[in-house]
Amino acid sequence: MVTKEQIERHWITVLAEFWLQTDWDKFSGQKKSRADTFGERVEVATRAGGVHEALDKLAKGLGQAVPKLPTADLDPLVTDEDQSMRILRREEVWIVNKTDETVQNYFEDKKDSDPDPEPTTSKLTDFITED
Length: 131
Hints:
By secondary structure, the protein is mostly helical. The chain has helices at residues 4-21, 34-45, 51-61, 71-79, 81-90, 92-111, 121-124.
């Protein structure tokens, strides 16, 4: 059985991949921060019935296709779909904040070594900080 903390980490990694794949220039006319914009899209996605439907809604809200996601992070969310969706709904704000923090940590680490870092989902988990 997957623990609540593991499900949260899987959500953070999956959502960070969406964040990295988003063309933020499409949202440049908004006065909201990226985190606020992303959070609103995730909030809409929480109303979905299941994980795949939520990811489809999120992708549409961000104007993109569902990115290729690592099965190591997606499979546990789908396996215990009810629990995964319940955690996303209850912890949405915290998960979005941790996703923002994870992406910022990722880019902070990459900015000195690579001027144009490419998203690598397998490495995103390295940038999730513990509370």
